[in-house]
Structure formats: C-alpha cells, structure tokens
Amino acid sequence: MISENIIEKTLKENIRNPDAYFVFATQTAADLWADRITETSEVHAVATERFIAWDTFKGESIRSRHQDKKAVPSAMRAIFTSQLIAENAAAPFLKSCIAPEYAKTASGFADWISSFLPGLSLWKKYFDLSKSAPDSEDKDLLVIYEKYRAFLEKHSLFDPAWETPPFSADGKHYFIFFPEILSDYAEYKKILEDAKSDITVIHLPEKDGSPSPSVDFFPNARTEIRNIALRLRSLHDNSKIGWQNIAVHVPDMESYGAYIDRELELFQIPHVMRSAKALSATGAGNFFSQAKQCVSDGFSFSSVKKLLLNTELPWKDGESIRQLISFGKANNCICSFSYDGKNIDVWNESLRRNSSEKRAEDFYVSLHEKLTRLTGAQTFSEIRERYFDFRETFFDMENCPEKSDRIISRCISELSALIDLEQEFPDCRAPDCFSFFTKYLDGKAYLAQTEERGVQILPYKMGACAPFACHIIADASQSALSVVYKELSFLRDDKRKRILNREDANVTEDFLRLYAMNSYSQPVYCTASAKTFTGYAQASSYLIENNRTKESAEELHAGDFYFAEKKWFAGGVDSKNSPFPEKISISQKKSEARWEECQDKGNESRNSGGTAVLSQKIQKIHFTESGKIRISETNLKRFYQCPRFWLQKTVSGLEQQNNEAELMDYFAMGNLYHKILELYCTELKKKNLPVHYEAEKNALNDNYRQILLQSIDNAIQIEKNSFLAKELLKTTKTALSAEIEKTVIKFSQIFEGCIVYEMEKECFYEIPGKNYVCTGRIDCLLYDDSAAEFILVDFKTSSVPQPLYYGNPHEPEENEEFELPDFQMPMYLYLLENQNPPVEAENCGFFSVKAGECTPVTGKTLFERVNAVSKKKNPPESVTKEQFAPTMQKFKECMELYAQKITETDFSVTNENQDFNTCNRCDFRAVCRRVFNISRQD
C-alpha cells in the first residue's frame, strides 16, 4: 500500500477534462474506478464510457486500413478450421500438425488450430527473417497460412492480428494504465508510442525498496479457506470495512470456488461469485451437448439418463421420464447394437414387448424422433426451427426456472448470431452444423447477472487494477500465481525462442505489485497451503512466507465460533465451568433450538410413540393374518448378523441405489443355471424318469439331453429376462449348453437312480403353543429307492454357507457353547418333519450349480454318494442325525429368541456379535453410524 495511488492521482488530475479517457486491463477495474473516483474527488458523477477496457480501446481506436472489409468473427475462424479438418480427412495434406493416421478423427484439433490462426502472420514474419529450411511442421503451418489467407480474401474479411493498423484519436486523449500486464501489448507498442500527443502510457513505478507482500502458509487448503473466512469477518467486524469493499482473488476457481462459497455461507459472509462458466458447463446450456451425445451413442442408457434427469431443464412430463428410466434400468437397455447385419434399438424392442409400458414407449418414440431430427439439421436455421419444435413437445417454459430460461435464451442468441453469419456467407458452412454449434457453446462464457452485494470473489488477474479496501489472494502458490506470456505458444519452446530471439515476458511480480498498490485501506493479504485440492504446492517466491503449519488449532482457529462450540462441548463436565462462545452462527442457533425442542417433548413420549409406529410396521410385514410371527431362514440369518441390519433391510426397506443399467445382473448366470436345473428336474418328475446318465460314456443319452436343451430354451425365455439379456444368451447358447450339460452330468453322477419327489415345494408349519410360524421353499427333494431314504438338495448359485453345524461332529458336552449355525438346512429339515405326512430326510446337502459340486451336511447315504464321485484321499466323515441334533436344538433356541426380540422390538447390538468386521462390510453403516476406536485404549 502506498501513500497515494498512481491511478487515483491520474484520475483526479484529469477527470474534469471531458476528452480524457481511461484505459484499464479489464472492464471490472474500469467500472470500479469510475465508482471510486466519485467518492474520492470533487466530481459526483462521471460518464462511464470514459472508463474502458483495453479490448474496447483496441476495437474503437485502432482501426484497420481495410475499410471495405470486415474483421473476421471468431465463429468464422472456427468454421474455417472445421472445413480445413474435413478437407484434410478426405485427402490428408497435413503431416505434422495432424498425423495422417488420425486425419479422419481429428475434430479434437479444431480449438487448437483456431487458437493459433491469429498468430500465423507473426510466425510467418519471423520465419521468413530466419531464412531457415522448413521442417514438416513449418510446411504444415505454411499450408494453413495460405489457406486461411485465401479464406479471408474470398469472404472479404481481415484478421486484426494480421494487421498493423493506424491509431485514430478522434480528438480524445487516452490514459493507458500498466500496459506491461497485457498479453498482446508488444504488438501495439510501436503504434501507441508514435501517438504520444494523444496517448499517455502509465507504467508501474520503479521499485522503491519496500518489502514484498507476505503470505500465510497453511498445512492444507481447508485450513487456508477457513482462515480467509475468519480474516473477512475480522475486516468487517473489527476494521469496519464493508463487505462490498473486499475482494478475494482465486487463481484456480474450478478447484477452490465451491469450497470458498460454502465456507463463506457457513460464516454468514455475503458474497458474489464473479466467475464465468462456459454455456455448455451449465445444466441448461448442456442440453445441446447431451442431445448430441444421445444420438451419437445410439440412445444408450447413460446418455438418455443424463439428458432426462437434467433437472435444470423444464421437462413437461416428469412421470413418463421416471417410468422410462426405471424401465431402462430394469430391462438392461444399455445400448443399441448390430446383429446379423441389422441395427437393433434395444429400447424399442424392449418396450414393444411390454404392453403395460405404453406411456413410456410413446415418450421414447417421440424423443428419439425429435432428437434425431434436431441433431441431423443441415443448417443453423434448421437447428433453431427443430429446437423450438422439440421445446414445444417436451419443455414447459411457463414453469422454467429463471436461471435456466436466461441460459437457454443466451444459447439461442448465440445460435442466432451463427444464423446471421450463415445468411451473410451462404457459401461458407460448417461440415456438421450441430456438432459445430455444441462446440461453439463450449467457448462462450456466461456470467449470471445479480443484484446481490457482498465480498467479490474474482478470478485471479481480473481485478488487479481494481480499487478495494482490501485485496485477498487465495492459493498464492508458485504455480498458481505465475503469469508468463509466451508468443507463438503453438510452437515448441526451443523453436519458438530461436525464431523470436527473446525471453518470454514474466509479469508475475507486476500483478502482485498492482494488488498491493490497489489495496487502499489494508495491506494485501495472501494465503497458500502445502496440500491443495489438486496436489502439493509451495508459496510464491515473490512473497515473504509466514509459515503457519506448526501453529496450534487454537491459534489457527482464533475467532472461529464453530471451533469454539466444538471445544466447549468436548470439554464434557468441565465445560460447564467455562463460558459458552459469545458468538454463534444462525445455523448453530437453529440446531440448538431444534435440539431443545426435541428435549421438551420428553424421552418417554417420544420413545413410546416411535415404538408404536415401528411395531405396527413390523406386524404388517412379518406377521401372519392370525397374528403370529412369520419366520424364514433368510430373516433369521439377517437378524443374527445384526438386528439393525434386519430392521433396515426388511422393515425400513432401505437399499443401496444403483442408477445404472447393467448388461446382466452379477448373479444372472448363476440364477440361469439354477433355473435350468430346476426345469430339468421338474420335467424328470413329470415324466417319472429317475436321475440318470450313461456312465460308460460319461454323458446324457439323447432323451435326457433333449429334456435339458428344452429346459435351457425355456429358462432363457422366462419373462423376467430382459430383451438384451435374452439376445446375449442366444449368442452364447452353444457354450452355455456345453457348460450346463457338464453340471447336469455331475449332478447325475452323485444322484444316479434317485427319483425327483418334490421341486420348489412351499412349506408352512404353525407351531402349537408358539407365537410364530415357520415358512420356507425347498428346492429339490429326491428319493433314493435303493436306500429307502429321502435326500434334501438345495441349489446354490454361488458359495455354500458356513458353518453347516457346530464345530466338528461329536457328542456335545454339557453347557458347551457353539457358534451360530447356518439356518437353512435346520429350517428345511424342521419343516419337512412337520408336514402332513411328515418327511424324514436325514440326508441333506448343498449343490453348487456353477461348480457342479455337492457339499453334504448330514446323512451317511449322501456322504457315501459324494465321496464315491469325488474320490478324495481323505473324504469327510459323515454326520449322523444324532450328531446334528445340537445344531437343530440351537436353531430352535434361535427361533425362540428371535420371536421374543421381535415382540419386544428389541434391536440392540452387542460388541461380541456385531464387531468391527461385521459393521465395516454392512451396506447400512452410513445410516447406523456405529463408531469403533481402532488401535486405541479409550
């Protein structure tokens, strides 16, 4: 901060001269100085047109000699580039800028080529002076230079950067402030120096030996941003500086902007984000890119979902959208595909097979037709016409949010500008108008206008010349603050420096000096952090570092009322003897009031009310009509895994959301194998055929094989399989049949000669004198005629549950404790024993349909069958009914305790049964929020 600002001094001396015009690097600085001079000088009003930005000055006062030609619009440069790339794709002539092998997919080079077109004239000048032999890159640049010059001549255009135009003062005198920070000042330096009578150039004063600004260096970006918020509050509360007179400058607005916005909201600091975004980076402005993505991706699920779930668009029929997205997810509408030379739209094929989805089908057909027409427009005029047709069908503009309405209107305004060019240059068109338009929106910045006042959050460099009571620079790291202007930046550094024969202009320190100069009430305040949001950093070498990484939390958070409240609560009993923080935020106050309100209701009334509601819901879901608890092995397993897990899964109905469509479900193939085996065994039962295979050939005979193939066809065509899943399974049917046949052969080897007694049998047992009933579905019950015994088989698509029984089979000792068993086989055996007539199934086991292996649980006969097929050296010993009795007893005790806990609505957890491993892999850990201390004593 200096005694008198050089800008303010110049303005005061010349403000009364109506012909004096003041040129600043940005319009932001110009507007703010126009406001400030009315406060610090004798004048109370100024003509704002006298305060102009450098770009405005160039356009108005440095005019081309070509009065009969028009300056080339940026859109015309882009059109030329798109034509150049299309021409090169048809017959490659560029060898270095675009490698020939990438010529047909080179649209990504368009922005880069457009960016260096203005610099080609300067390059040509220095290249000719160097008199060096052209390499492949130079040859490409010469070709582009000649084609661009011919393009300009053909359409009577000129590129301002290719000209050395004269200066026209028009009777005005211009004061240009600090041109050394302008990236293109070197191109205009001679013109302005030759017009000294009409132009006064004001440079930064020589260094006077005063120390450089300091920078507070924090351990991480979060602490840094918290400190900025605290500094802002201090400036306002203690130094009495108005919010609107403070500016925070952010080099990396994309990474830091959202965090700064949130932190200032928390500390109740009014602020205005002055960061422009590309139109296509906004939700509403992204419509055109999303529409293009839909069509180019063949209406893939992800592209359709992104478009239809864009909440910033004013969709008219929300219900149809929800139905369509839900249908696409459930029916695997991932993408369209080609098969046997035909293009198949997976949405159409899936929807027309579901008559109940007529509304969603009509919506999709209309969406497909309108979007295809829109993106296929051949001219910009057609794009506008077809957009309004689409809007009439799908958008409700009367209920469109004002923000979205403004953005969409701006997009259409940009489209209208392209239409004007199209009409002015009818023989000059982009090869793909819609793709060009979406790309064009990427380069159009949009800054929403607002009447809000507060701290100005500005991109770094924008407000360097602007007057603020205090400038604050966030992320003042070496890389973030570096400002180096590279002429002909499209060339390699070694080649560029050889041609120009001068060093690049480094104006980093000039910007810091300007911030210090224009912070007129308080010194400029800079912060940086060792750990940023994108990596590690060090403070700028142009600043004096104040290392704050070793300070205590109390020192770093002095004045932080959130930290003070947290510290007070952490004090426990001792906190009652210390005063509560003097200041708290509105959000803290509301939270405290809500907490007190809850306390006033009384624990007893709240708990009893909640318990009553919970009991009603449990009764509705888990009780029979006669008022008894319905128990299944699945519910037992979930409850003993964790009562809270059971509650969320079976009562609350919570589940992890998956908004993506999948090609096939994770368990789809296993479920398909399970279904095939089920249908195969069911058919054997219908035809009174025993389980059989030809041992000498280790294969199924023709009759059994035909039954299996028909079962495969039926399993694929079951209704729950989506169209895409069915088509995919058809293409792999040969391999699938071979694999499942191997599984059936292994099944037949183990159960050769057995008769299929029951398949998918629903069992129900109402236990006399108890308040609960047992239910279950038994997969397969076989009868071994040779042993006169039943064999219970449960098909598993994945792993076999463990443990099957308590420890190793043995006679239980008195008061012996065992781990909980898997409840499935005890439940099924218990149900079979209590059917009418009862079924004594001593033999039971699990059959893995993927592995083709059987894991016996009990029964000598089943163990012998399995061991005979596996031929292991050390086969497992069989488990008798008597040895399995403790497991059955424990199972019954678990049912009794389960019924008691449900009746009492007791869902408490214990550290023994619900340990860290159980909770860590639970889907509901974020809801439950149970806390563990790891490797700590407290």
What would you say this structure looks like, in words?
By secondary structure, the protein is α/β, with parallel strands linked by helices. The chain has seven domains: about 100 residues; about 90 residues; about 160 residues, Rossmann fold, CATH 3.40.50; about 170 residues; about 40 residues, no CATH class; about 220 residues, Alpha-Beta Complex (Lambda Exonuclease, Chain A); about 80 residues, no CATH class. About 45% of the residues lie in helices and about 15% in strands. The chain is built from 36 helices and 25 strands. The strands form seven sheets. A seven-stranded parallel β-sheet has the order 9-14-8-15-18-7-19, covered by helices on one side. Strands 20, 21, 22, 23, 24 and 25 form a six-stranded mixed β-sheet that branches. Strand 24 and strand 25 form a beta hairpin. Helix 9 crosses helix 10, helix 11 runs antiparallel to helix 12 and helix 14 packs antiparallel against helix 15. The longest helix has 23 residues. The two termini are about 55 Å apart. About 0% of the residues have low confidence.
Question: How do the helices and strands line up, and which of them pair or pack?
Answer:
Blueprint: H1 6-14, E1 20-24, H2 27-40, E2 51-53, H3 54-61, E3 70-71, H4 74-90, H5 110-116, H6 120-130, H7 136-154, E4 157-158, E5 173-177, H8 185-193, E6 199-202, E7 214-220, H9 221-237, E8 246-250, H10 253-266, E9 271-273, E10 277-278, H11 287-296, H12 301-308, H13 318-330, E11 337-339, E12 342-344, H14 346-352, H15 358-375, H16 380-394, H17 402-424, H18 433-442, E13 445-446, E14 455-459, E15 470-473, H19 478-481, E16 484-485, H20 493-500, E17 505-506, H21 508-517, E18 525-531, E19 544-547, H22 553-556, H23 561-570, H24 586-600, H25 603-622, E20 629-631, H26 633-641, H27 643-652, H28 668-686, H29 702-716, H30 723-731, H31 733-750, E21 755-766, E22 772-784, E23 789-796, H32 824-833, E24 843-848, E25 853-858, H33 860-870, H34 885-903, H35 916-920, H36 925-928
Parallel strand pairs: 1-2, 1-5, 3-4, 5-6, 7-18, 7-19, 8-14, 8-15, 9-14, 15-18, 20-22, 23-24
Antiparallel strand pairs: 10-13, 11-12, 16-17, 21-22, 22-23, 24-25
Helix pairs in contact: 4-5, 9-10, 11-12, 11-15, 12-13, 13-15, 14-15, 15-16, 16-17, 26-27, 28-29, 29-31
Domain PD-(D/E)XK endonuclease-like: 630-929
Protein name: PD-(D/E)XK nuclease superfamily protein
Organism: Treponema porcinum
